[in-house]
Amino acid sequence: MGLVTSTEMFKKAYEGGYAVGAFNVNNMEIIQGIVEAAGEEQAPLILQVSAGARKYANPVYLRKLVEAAIEVSGLDICLHLDHGSDFEICKACVDTGFTSVMIDGSQHPFKENIALTKQVVDYAHDHGVVVEAELGKLAGIEDDIVVNAPNATFTDPDEAVEFVEKSGCDSLAITIGTSHGAFKFKSEPRLDFERLDTITNLLPGYPLVLHGASSVPKEFVDLCNQYGGQIPGAQGVPEEMLRKAAKSGVCKINIDTDLRLAMTASIRKVFVENPGWFDPRQYLAPGRSAIKAMVAHKMKNVLGCSHKR
Ligand code: G3H
Ligand code: 13P
Ligand code: ZN
Questions:
Q1: pLDDT the model gives residue 143
Q2: Residue 158, Cβ neighbours under 10 Å: how many?
Q3: Are the CB atoms for 105 and 136 separated by under 8 Å?
Q4: Is residue 309 part of a domain?
């Protein structure tokens, strides 16, 4: 048990035709809910920390919480930096015990993205840490970067091959139509599976990553809306599309928005049904249980990674 890289996880996932879930963490209850689900499902696990999460919780707290989760659960966990925007943040994570970092150079021109990624790869590999990179621009919002749909671009398959060869990255996030947040499609959800198959065939055995892969289940949006506030027009990636992607070269599927929805829906319900409650444990515990149920569902029914530890 301990902090591990994703190398073995991806190898097994690729061969087994399933994907490993990478879940965003921001506080203790979120970590506990996810880790409890992974323990019960006997599933491989990646916990990922965004720059926003680092700012919110302080990276030392998050790392120590993940270490505590490993001690309590006896699981192997990959601790990953999500969307590192520059060399410095990746280096800081490598230096403080992360086992995986993402350098997201997707906003830069192709050659600059390669050069930046290679710089991170050289440093990370020297320290036994693996690197995820991104090619193509996902629509949506992450931290301070906003990409509007017209500026989103899908990953070019030939560029993907050149990118992997020249940068040496261990896994590659590609864009085939998913996006961050709760509003992913204006009309019918569509992913470019032809492109995914082409990239998979050009890079046999190589792990691909799908960001923006929440499904935004209607029941949770309805629950949030029923108990106050409105989340209009929410639309996610249908779960059957994720199951299909997991059977190709996609070995890592990122989920954050669905956890937010599940936790918030359950907490809103507690507040509405129990207006007299004010002990934080009375609403954080149901929030934690909602996270656990959502993650267990993803592992069992969507990613196919239950019992693959
Ligand atoms: O890709 C973005 C993740 O959902 C993290 O979101 O940057 O608000 O922590 P955040
Ligand atoms: P969602 O917003 O679809 O959950 O995607 C999360 C993500 O890609 C984190 O990097
Ligand atoms: Zn992402």
A1: 54
A2: 10
A3: no
A4: no
**Number of domain units in the chain:** 1
Contact assessment for residue 282 and residue 241, using Cβ atoms and an 8 Å cutoff: no
Which protein residue has the closest C-alpha to ligand 1 atom 1?
142
- Taking only the tens place, the pLDDT of each residue in 108-140 is 999 999 999 999 999 999 999 999 999 998 876
Give the model's confidence band at 151: pLDDT under 50 very low, under 70 low, under 90 confident, else very high. Answer: low
Which is nearest to 260 in space by CA: 98, 79, 24? Answer: 24
Q: Is residue 83 lining ligand 1, measured as CB closer than 6 Å?
A: yes
Q: What pLDDT shows up at residue 230?
A: 75
Which residues form the domain of 270?
Answer: 2-303
What's 173's domain CATH number?
3.20.20.70
82 is catalytic: yes
**Residue 259: inside a domain, yes or no?**
yes
With contact defined as beta carbons under 8 Å apart, do 19 and 253 qualify?
yes
> At CA 249, angle to CA 245 and CA 187, rounded to 5?
30
Its pTM stands at 0.96
| 148 in any annotated domain | yes
Please report which ligand is nearest the Cα atom of 145. 1
Percentage of the chain modeled with pLDDT above 70: 96
308 lies in some domain: no
